[in-house]
Amino acid sequence: MQYDQPTPEAYLAALDTDWRKDTLLELRALIQSAAPEAGEFMQYKMLAYGTPDNTMCQLNAQKAYVSLYVGNTNKIDPSGQWLEGLSLGKGCIRFSKTTQVSDTRIAEFINEAAQMWRDGKDMGC
Q: Rg of the chain's alpha carbons, rounded to an integer?
């Protein structure tokens, strides 16, 4: 599902009030806590964090899951300890209706990604 909205505020307002919005807002709060200096903007019809020329990650609500796009997850979590049990795709982490953000170690992963972004380290695919 793509929400073609011009601003983060419009994107959030367009989301249905259901588990996807709740999950996206939880992940958004973790990102903003880990990298308060990162801007929030629209990129590829998704919420994006960082700067337009140096994106740290993106968030998107799909029909069946919420995606956190971070580039190469193996560069951020080489051992896979923080992402264990999560659904992973190429450069994304998927949160389904049955996945509770608080039951995962995604906050640690996001903190590491934020530090790598600050340090200018390569996280790309």
A: 13
